[in-house]
Amino acid sequence: MEKKTDLDRALEGDINAFHALFAEFKDQLKSYLYRLVADRNDAEDLAQDAFVKAFDKISTFQQKSSLKTWVFSIATRLAYDFLRNRPRWSGDVMDKVKERCCENGNKSEFLYNASLNSAYGEFDISEHINFCFTCISKTIPLEQQVTLMLKDVYEFQVKEVAMIIGKTVPAVKHILRFARQTMIDVFDNRCALVNKNGACHQCSELNGWFNPKQNQQEALMKLNLTQAPANASKEQLLALRQTLVKAVDPLQAKGTDLHEAFMKLHRLVEGEINEAWPDPAVGVLQDR
């Protein structure tokens, strides 16, 4: 008799077998959801909800795709529902956060506390570019953000993306084209790393705030993004950013707690959280 696989057992209702399969892509799923919702706890909750719903509906899985693709489709629908009534972030959200942080000369002790009091509060330029990519992606329509993340960051095939978001392959290609072009346009107008006319010098400024001992130029020269040929196309620069982003798990990075603090401030200025600006003397990050 042929030995049963974990999938066979999961389809029969074995939760341990399903958990073993889910564990193979759990970290990717959580990082994907984090990039969509910009909050660690919300991403964890959505991933858990996806696990429960997928196991509950496992008998409907017809194996027309991988289990990973099927679970990502469930998680994506949950994320859509979660974000349905939330507006996209404004293009100048980083400027608004900086303005609030620098009021009265205060560079936000709240952020310093996250940096100094956490083992995961280290500032790293390459990780910050990943954080920046997430923030910029939240300024484009949700369907474009989801499609871009699935295809260019999590490397699903176009046909798999179509299954996840419930669109045709030609529709996915159309959405992806617009998403990439929008991201290119935003980065071209903002990022001072690759465009001297860019409005945003955040990487340099934050390096000075949180990691002054690091040789900034040396750190930048290690990044393919800043070593790109002078004649590199905007499409190539976006692809280089995406290569860097793919290498960073935002929930497991050296600076994940610092970035979580930044995300909270971004959500505050965009009105996603109905709270006062955080008291700098009070830590807000929960134990990992």
UniProtKB/TrEMBL annotation:
Keywords: DNA-binding, Sigma factor, Transcription, Transcription regulation. SUPFAM superfamilies: Sigma2 domain of RNA polymerase sigma factors (SSF88946), Sigma3 and sigma4 domains of RNA polymerase sigma factors (SSF88659). Residues 21-86 form the RNA polymerase sigma-70 region domain. It comes from the Bacteria. It holds the Pfam family Sigma70_r2. Belongs to the sigma-70 factor family. ECF subfamily. This is RNA polymerase sigma factor.
